[in-house]
Amino acid sequence: MMATTHVFAGLAVVAPVAYAVPELASPLVAGAILGGLAPDFDLVLEHRRSFHFPVAGAVVAGAGVALGVAVPSQLTVGVAAFAVAAWLHAVSDAIGGGPEMDPWNDRSERAVYDHVRGRWVRPRRWIRYDGAPEDAALAVVLAVPTLLVFDGWIRAIVLVGLAVSLGYASLRRRLVAWLPDWLE
Protein backbone atom coordinates (compact mmCIF):
# COMPACT_ATOMS: atom_id res chain seq x y z
CA MET A 1 0.00 0.00 0.00
CA MET A 2 1.01 3.62 -0.44
CA ALA A 3 2.71 5.33 2.47
CA THR A 4 -0.20 7.74 2.63
CA THR A 5 -2.66 4.86 3.00
CA HIS A 6 -0.65 3.59 5.98
CA VAL A 7 -0.64 7.06 7.52
CA PHE A 8 -4.39 7.47 6.97
CA ALA A 9 -4.98 4.09 8.65
CA GLY A 10 -3.07 5.25 11.73
CA LEU A 11 -4.93 8.56 11.77
CA ALA A 12 -8.30 6.79 11.41
CA VAL A 13 -7.51 4.71 14.49
CA VAL A 14 -6.55 7.70 16.65
CA ALA A 15 -9.34 9.99 15.42
CA PRO A 16 -11.99 8.71 17.88
CA VAL A 17 -9.57 9.07 20.80
CA ALA A 18 -8.62 12.59 19.72
CA TYR A 19 -12.31 13.45 19.43
CA ALA A 20 -12.96 12.20 22.97
CA VAL A 21 -9.81 13.74 24.46
CA PRO A 22 -8.95 16.75 22.26
CA GLU A 23 -6.05 17.90 24.43
CA LEU A 24 -4.17 14.77 23.30
CA ALA A 25 -4.88 15.28 19.59
CA SER A 26 -1.43 16.59 18.63
CA PRO A 27 0.65 13.74 20.09
CA LEU A 28 -1.86 11.21 18.73
CA VAL A 29 -1.56 12.68 15.24
CA ALA A 30 2.24 12.94 15.41
CA GLY A 31 2.52 9.34 16.63
CA ALA A 32 0.11 8.03 13.99
CA ILE A 33 1.87 9.81 11.13
CA LEU A 34 5.37 8.76 12.21
CA GLY A 35 4.25 5.20 13.00
CA GLY A 36 2.51 4.92 9.64
CA LEU A 37 5.72 5.90 7.86
CA ALA A 38 8.43 4.33 10.05
CA PRO A 39 8.34 0.72 8.83
CA ASP A 40 9.19 1.84 5.29
CA PHE A 41 12.49 3.29 6.45
CA ASP A 42 13.73 -0.24 5.72
CA LEU A 43 13.55 0.49 1.98
CA VAL A 44 17.33 0.92 2.08
CA LEU A 45 17.78 -2.36 3.98
CA GLU A 46 15.66 -5.46 3.42
CA HIS A 47 12.26 -3.99 2.69
CA ARG A 48 9.34 -5.41 4.67
CA ARG A 49 11.71 -7.37 6.89
CA SER A 50 14.03 -5.01 8.75
CA PHE A 51 11.43 -2.66 10.31
CA HIS A 52 8.18 -4.56 9.70
CA PHE A 53 6.87 -6.61 12.65
CA PRO A 54 3.39 -7.97 11.85
CA VAL A 55 3.25 -10.42 14.77
CA ALA A 56 5.70 -9.12 17.39
CA GLY A 57 4.45 -5.59 16.73
CA ALA A 58 1.07 -6.55 18.17
CA VAL A 59 2.67 -7.05 21.58
CA VAL A 60 4.43 -3.69 21.40
CA ALA A 61 1.22 -1.96 20.23
CA GLY A 62 -0.79 -3.59 23.02
CA ALA A 63 1.78 -2.56 25.63
CA GLY A 64 1.81 0.97 24.23
CA VAL A 65 -1.97 1.24 24.41
CA ALA A 66 -1.99 -0.18 27.95
CA LEU A 67 0.61 2.38 29.03
CA GLY A 68 -1.28 5.21 27.31
CA VAL A 69 -4.49 4.22 29.11
CA ALA A 70 -2.85 3.63 32.50
CA VAL A 71 -0.70 6.77 32.46
CA PRO A 72 -2.20 9.14 29.90
CA SER A 73 0.20 11.88 28.92
CA GLN A 74 1.30 13.46 25.68
CA LEU A 75 4.35 11.20 25.58
CA THR A 76 2.58 7.91 26.36
CA VAL A 77 -0.31 8.43 23.95
CA GLY A 78 2.09 9.56 21.23
CA VAL A 79 4.17 6.42 21.74
CA ALA A 80 1.00 4.29 21.74
CA ALA A 81 -0.21 5.90 18.49
CA PHE A 82 3.22 5.32 16.93
CA ALA A 83 3.28 1.65 17.96
CA VAL A 84 -0.27 0.96 16.77
CA ALA A 85 0.25 2.71 13.41
CA ALA A 86 3.58 0.93 12.82
CA TRP A 87 1.99 -2.43 13.63
CA LEU A 88 -1.00 -1.72 11.37
CA HIS A 89 1.42 -0.82 8.59
CA ALA A 90 3.28 -4.12 8.93
CA VAL A 91 0.11 -6.21 9.15
CA SER A 92 -1.58 -4.47 6.25
CA ASP A 93 1.37 -5.05 3.94
CA ALA A 94 0.29 -8.71 3.88
CA ILE A 95 -2.97 -7.78 2.15
CA GLY A 96 -1.07 -6.27 -0.76
CA GLY A 97 1.38 -7.59 -3.30
CA GLY A 98 5.07 -8.25 -2.82
CA PRO A 99 7.71 -5.58 -2.19
CA GLU A 100 9.07 -5.53 -5.74
CA MET A 101 8.68 -2.47 -7.96
CA ASP A 102 6.23 -4.22 -10.32
CA PRO A 103 4.14 -6.51 -8.08
CA TRP A 104 1.34 -6.73 -10.66
CA ASN A 105 3.48 -9.44 -12.26
CA ASP A 106 2.97 -11.56 -9.10
CA ARG A 107 6.65 -12.49 -9.03
CA SER A 108 7.12 -12.73 -5.27
CA GLU A 109 5.44 -14.83 -2.62
CA ARG A 110 6.92 -12.59 0.08
CA ALA A 111 4.67 -9.88 1.49
CA VAL A 112 6.10 -9.19 4.94
CA TYR A 113 8.49 -11.06 7.23
CA ASP A 114 7.18 -12.70 10.40
CA HIS A 115 10.09 -12.55 12.85
CA VAL A 116 8.28 -14.73 15.39
CA ARG A 117 7.85 -17.70 13.05
CA GLY A 118 11.00 -16.93 11.05
CA ARG A 119 9.29 -16.95 7.64
CA TRP A 120 7.70 -14.69 5.07
CA VAL A 121 3.94 -14.15 5.05
CA ARG A 122 2.55 -14.61 1.55
CA PRO A 123 0.88 -11.66 -0.18
CA ARG A 124 -2.92 -11.79 -0.30
CA ARG A 125 -3.09 -9.27 -3.18
CA TRP A 126 -6.43 -7.79 -2.07
CA ILE A 127 -4.70 -4.55 -2.92
CA ARG A 128 -2.66 -5.64 -5.92
CA TYR A 129 0.15 -3.11 -5.56
CA ASP A 130 0.85 0.27 -3.99
CA GLY A 131 -0.97 2.87 -6.01
CA ALA A 132 -3.53 0.42 -7.41
CA PRO A 133 -7.05 1.81 -7.83
CA GLU A 134 -8.20 -0.13 -4.76
CA ASP A 135 -5.32 1.38 -2.77
CA ALA A 136 -6.42 4.89 -3.78
CA ALA A 137 -10.02 4.07 -2.82
CA LEU A 138 -8.90 2.74 0.57
CA ALA A 139 -6.81 5.88 1.14
CA VAL A 140 -9.87 8.05 0.52
CA VAL A 141 -12.06 5.97 2.86
CA LEU A 142 -9.42 5.98 5.62
CA ALA A 143 -8.94 9.76 5.32
CA VAL A 144 -12.61 10.48 6.03
CA PRO A 145 -12.51 10.04 9.86
CA THR A 146 -9.51 12.34 10.06
CA LEU A 147 -11.22 14.98 7.92
CA LEU A 148 -14.31 14.78 10.13
CA VAL A 149 -12.48 15.01 13.47
CA PHE A 150 -9.58 17.36 12.80
CA ASP A 151 -9.28 20.81 11.33
CA GLY A 152 -6.48 23.28 10.62
CA TRP A 153 -3.03 21.98 9.75
CA ILE A 154 -4.00 18.33 10.24
CA ARG A 155 -6.84 18.57 7.74
CA ALA A 156 -4.52 20.42 5.32
CA ILE A 157 -1.90 17.65 5.59
CA VAL A 158 -4.54 15.00 4.92
CA LEU A 159 -5.91 16.87 1.90
CA VAL A 160 -2.41 17.26 0.45
CA GLY A 161 -1.81 13.55 1.16
CA LEU A 162 -5.01 12.66 -0.67
CA ALA A 163 -3.97 14.73 -3.69
CA VAL A 164 -0.55 13.04 -3.72
CA SER A 165 -2.18 9.61 -3.34
CA LEU A 166 -4.60 10.13 -6.21
CA GLY A 167 -1.88 11.59 -8.43
CA TYR A 168 0.49 8.74 -7.67
CA ALA A 169 -2.22 6.14 -8.24
CA SER A 170 -3.03 7.63 -11.63
CA LEU A 171 0.64 7.35 -12.69
CA ARG A 172 1.92 4.34 -10.73
CA ARG A 173 2.29 1.75 -13.46
CA ARG A 174 3.84 4.26 -15.86
CA LEU A 175 6.41 5.30 -13.25
CA VAL A 176 8.04 1.85 -13.24
CA ALA A 177 8.86 2.15 -16.94
CA TRP A 178 10.95 5.23 -16.16
CA LEU A 179 13.06 3.54 -13.48
CA PRO A 180 16.65 2.58 -14.24
CA ASP A 181 17.23 -1.19 -14.38
CA TRP A 182 19.34 -1.21 -11.20
CA LEU A 183 16.33 -0.05 -9.14
CA GLU A 184 14.01 -2.84 -10.22
Number of domains: 1
Order of helices and strands: HHHHEEHH
Q: What share of residues are in beta strands?
A: under 5%
Distance between the termini: 18 Å
Helix/strand class: mainly alpha
The major beta sheet can be summarized as: 2 strands, antiparallel
Which whole number gives the mean pLDDT? 91
List the helices and strands and how they pair.
Elements lengths: L2 H18 L4 H13 L18 H15 L3 H19 L19 E3 L4 E3 L11 H17 L2 H26 L7
Antiparallel strand pairs: 1-2
Keywords:
single chain; 184 residues; mainly alpha; two-stranded antiparallel ribbon
Structure, described:
Strands 1-2 form a two-stranded antiparallel sheet. It has helices at 3-20, 25-37, 56-70, 74-92, 133-149, 152-177, and strands at 112-114, 119-121. It is mainly alpha-helical. Helix 1 runs parallel beside helix 5, helix 2 packs parallel to helix 4 (74-92) and helix 3 runs antiparallel to helix 4. The protein contains six helices and two strands.
